[in-house]
Design goal:
Elements (H helix, E strand, L loop, with lengths): L14 H22 E2 L6 E7 L4 H16 L4 E7 L5 H12 L5 E5 L5 E3 L1 H7 L3 E4 L4 E3 L14 H22 L3 H6 L7 E3 H6 L5 E2 L3 H8 L3 E3 L5 E3 L7 E3 L4 H9 L2 H20 L5 H16 L7 H19 L5 H16 L12 H27 L13 E4 L7 E5 L2 E7 L8 E8 L2 E6 L4
Parallel strand pairs: 1-11, 2-3, 2-12, 3-4, 4-6, 5-7, 6-9, 15-17
Antiparallel strand pairs: 7-8, 10-11, 13-14, 13-16, 14-15, 16-17
Helix pairs in contact: 2-3, 3-4, 10-11, 10-12, 10-14, 12-13, 13-14
């Protein structure tokens, strides 16, 4: 009788297969979660400050800060912003840098009393975290006409305004902010908002006293990136690094001011004018040349209307012509007027913070006009004085006959012996007066007692 052996019960799926299956399941769940929440960065918190008008220098500073945050794998980039507005083109560059940044960006309207108006409002709305300090404001972002500062009208104005509205609406919706109220800051009533109003209406995320308070409140906060992914900020015990501007950015930022540009052009024109009217002074020419070079450097960062530059150069030409033509001050007056008009037209886009104020215009024009008038006066007076150098300067001088003088002789004048002739005979040692000069021969006459 054959004994039946019990059958061994083998598992349907080997234990190794279960391990592999579990591993794939965990990995799949991790990938799914990775699509929804990004891992926190391990780097420091970077802080960069931007104040003043929004122009290419400000865009360069922020773009460099975004690149530095990417290199350092920063946990957060904080942009401290205080601006009255600026160029739409530079604002677009900044907005693109923020939206495409791999590192979360917080725009902080700070310090107290600061503002983020016009172009600054677009920058605040584009940030991952929009934060304001107490006592600050934002809004008033209606586009203006690049030719005259008035509201844009007609077909082109509608196109630009519609594009700005849609752009702001898209950013606000992705960031989870109030799109309807954001649009009101661009069109309609063109509203401005205090920090408290912006927080109550859902335009910003929170209010912070300073950068440290911002970091404390943002810690463990989930932010939605522009790609739709969420990232939890882990900022506690992170190093805070303030990014300093480079030397080029500091110099260009200092002179990228319409008032400074007008001063540089005015001083450059004045220095060259003084050097040309008084050759050999050297210092005015050197200072004028340096000012002109710095002005050209400044023009790289400002929207320049070259009609204004040509008017300022015309004023320089009119001042020079005044030295040669007796216009009784008309050319100088024309030069001052040309200088004023040039300053008024120098900046192409009269947006907030990018306009030459009247105090600077009038002060520079009056100073240059007065100095040019003084130089012209001194030159004219010098032309009316007696000649003291050269052969013409010898006429009227007196000396003593060293030998009898008639057809030919010698006289002693101002420590030198000269060949001399006279229409009437003159005895030796008699005083003589020079009445003319012919080449190297003096024409003299006897000096009478009277």
């Amino acid at each position: 009788m054959e004994v039946l052996k019990p059958m061994s019960m083998k598992p349907l799926v080997p234990w190794k297969g279960w391990c592999v299956l579990i591993s794939f399941s965990v990995a799949g769940a991790t990938l799914v979660n990775a699509d929804e929440t990004l891992p926190p960065s391990a780097g420091p918190t970077l802080v960069v400050s931007v104040s003043g008008p929004i122009h290419p220098v400000a865009a360069e500073v922020i773009a460099r800060a975004v690149g530095k945050a990417r290199e350092d794998d920063a946990a957060l980039l904080v942009i401290e912003l205080d601006t009255p507005g600026g160029l739409m083109s530079s604002m677009q560059d900044i907005k693109k840098a923020i939206l495409n940044s791999p590192v979360p960006v917080a725009v902080f309207v700070s310090p107290k009393g600061a503002q983020a108006a016009s172009a600054g409002f677009f920058i605040v709305m584009s940030a991952d975290l929009a934060v304001m300090a107490p006592g600050t404001s934002t809004g008033a972002a209606h586009p203006v006409d690049i030719s005259g500062g008035e509201e844009i009208s007609e077909v082109m104005g509608k196109k630009i305004l519609h594009s700005a509205v849609k752009e702001l609406q898209s950013v606000a919706e992705v960031r989870g902010r109030n799109p309807e109220l954001a649009i009101e800051a661009v069109q309609g009533e063109v509203k401005s908002f205090t920090a408290e109003e912006a927080l109550a209406e859902g335009l910003i995320d929170f209010i912070a006293e300073d950068v440290h308070d911002l970091i404390r409140k943002a810690n463990d906060r989930a932010v939605t990136r522009f790609t739709g992914e969420e990232e939890v900020l882990t900022l506690d015990e992170r190093e805070i690094v303030e990014l300093e501007q480079t030397l080029r950015e500091r110099v260009l930022g200092a002179i990228a001011n319409p008032n400074v540009l007008f001063l540089l052009l005015g001083l450059g024109v004045l220095g060259l004018y003084v050097e040309i009217s008084n050759p050999g002074l050297i210092l005015p020419g050197v200072v004028g040349g340096i000012c002109i070079i710095l002005a050209l450097f400044s023009m790289q960062a400002l929207p320049i209307n070259y009609a204004g530059v040509l008017l300022m150069l015309l004023s320089f030409v009119l001042f020079l012509v005044e030295l040669k033509v007796a216009s009784y001050g008309l050319l100088t007056l024309g030069g001052i007027l040309s200088l004023l008009l040039g300053g008024m037209l120098l900046i192409k886009e009269p947006v907030p913070g990018l306009a030459i104020n009247w105090t600077t215009l009038i002060s520079v024009a009056v100073f240059i006009g007065a100095l040019v008038a003084l130089v012209v006066y001194l030159v004219v007076r010098a032309h009316g004085e007696d000649v003291w150098t050269g052969q013409e300067g010898m006429v009227g001088k007196r000396g003593v006959a060293a030998t009898p003088v008639h057809r030919e002789g010698r006289v002693f004048v101002q420590g030198e012996y000269w060949r001399a002739i006279s229409a009437a005979p003159i005895e030796k040692d008699e005083p003589v007066e020079i009445v003319g000069v012919s080449e190297m021969t003096l024409k003299v006459q006897r000096v009478t007692e009277s």
